[in-house]
TrEMBL record:
<feature type="domain" description="MobA/VirD2-like nuclease">
    <location>
        <begin position="17"/>
        <end position="143"/>
    </location>
</feature>
<dbReference type="InterPro" id="IPR005094">
    <property type="entry name" value="Endonuclease_MobA/VirD2"/>
</dbReference>
<dbReference type="Pfam" id="PF03432">
    <property type="entry name" value="Relaxase"/>
</dbReference>
<protein>
    <submittedName>
        <fullName>Relaxase/mobilization nuclease domain-containing protein</fullName>
    </submittedName>
</protein>
<feature type="compositionally biased region" description="Low complexity">
    <location>
        <begin position="252"/>
        <end position="263"/>
    </location>
</feature>
<feature type="region of interest" description="Disordered">
    <location>
        <begin position="244"/>
        <end position="282"/>
    </location>
</feature>
Length: 333
């Protein structure tokens, strides 16, 4: 069940709406004549005159049930009475009307904020207080809680232009926000859907304090569209999205590249853990191979080259000895 206070300046227009709407039914009236709209408004206005300075004396609240819920008239009358009592709207005139013109059953509650003694009933934070009271009554009567907006159950054609505009803004933000990284990017996307983003700044500075959205002739604060669409709420959502993006697992290729040094390191460690006896055997085998290779090289160097050419006579042993004998025969000078 959802509680929603509606600003109202005129008892007559409010009473006319809740009583003459197609499918409307008055469940209970206290202190006013409910069979005639004009007489009902006159009764409310007469009591308001007990405290003339209270201009906005008309309280208009809506209690909406979840689509498909259909509590009895007695239960709804009981819920409306507890709703007013817990809001502190007591000892005064009120009317409760049931409407069935939408997919969800809902109640319209009109009350005088000037009580029977001519005293003003406080309306401070009445929207927040009404929400908490509705949540408590939902649990008490075991009703279906409205955790979030269900766009599939929302009929824009059944809404007035003001409410339809708000839901269009909600839909646009909900669809585009997950694909944005900054408020500026969200602003650009909404602009493409003819939704203007407006900011409230602190004094003469550029520090943003609030955000609003405008569609056609209607403008709504972000918190009016949805509580999570306030400036702080949008910034929080964008920060969470950025955090989730940074925590995403890296591609498989990068993981393989990171694992490669670990594999090389493990191989190196295995080599270092080879027993000393195996290391000695490997060293001796390597030394033997080196020695064999060196001996082969020496043999190749000392072995005379095979040639098919005739060796000159003077380089033979016989030629060498003959040359020595000739030198010895020469006379000394």
């Amino acid at each position: 069940m959802i509680s929603k206070p509606v600003p109202a300046r005129s008892f007559y227009h409010t009473c006319n709406y809740i009583a003459n709407k197609p499918g409307a039914e008055i469940l209970i009236a206290e202190g006013v004549r409910s069979h005639d709209v004009k007489l009902m408004a006159e009764d409310f206005e007469r009591q308001r005159q007990l405290h003339p300075s209270k201009e906005l004396a008309c309280f208009h609240g809506i209690l909406s049930f979840y689509p498909g819920e259909n509590p009895s008239d007695e239960i709804m009358t009981e819920i409306a009475g507890k709703y007013l009592q817990r809001l502190g709207i007591t000892n005064t005139q009120y009317v409760v009307s049931k409407h069935t013109d939408k997919a969800h059953l809902h109640l319209h509650i009109v009350a005088n904020m000037v009580n029977n003694d001519g005293e003003v009933i406080s309306d401070s934070w009445i929207g927040l207080r009404g929400k908490k009271v509705a949540q408590a009554l939902t649990k008490e009567y075991k009703l279906i809680p409205a955790i979030k907006k269900n766009l599939q159950l929302t009929h824009l054609e059944a809404m007035n232009e003001l409410e339809a505009g708000k839901y269009k803004i909600y839909t646009a933000i909900a669809e585009n926000l997950p694909h944005c990284q900054t408020l500026e990017e969200l602003e650009t996307r909404l602009q493409q859907q003819r939704i203007e983003t407006l900011y409230k700044y602190k004094g003469q500075t550029q520090e943003k304090q609030g955000i609003s959205f405008k569609i056609g002739e209607y403008s709504f604060k972000g918190s009016q569209v949805d509580r999570k669409f306030s400036l702080a709420g949008l910034r929080k959502s964008l920060a969470l999205q950025e955090k989730e993006h940074l925590q995403e697992p890296r591609p498989v290729r990068q993981q393989q590249q990171v694992q490669q040094p670990e594999q090389k390191l493990s191989l190196t460690r295995r080599r270092r853990t080879v027993p000393k006896e195996e290391q000695k055997n490997d060293l001796s085998a390597l030394t033997t191979e080196l020695m064999k290779g060196a001996a082969g090289i020496i043999d190749d160097l000392l072995k005379p080259e095979d040639t098919h050419e005739q060796v000159p006579y003077e380089f033979t042993l016989e030629g060498y000895l003959r040359g020595q004998r000739k030198q010895n025969r020469r006379p000394k000078r």
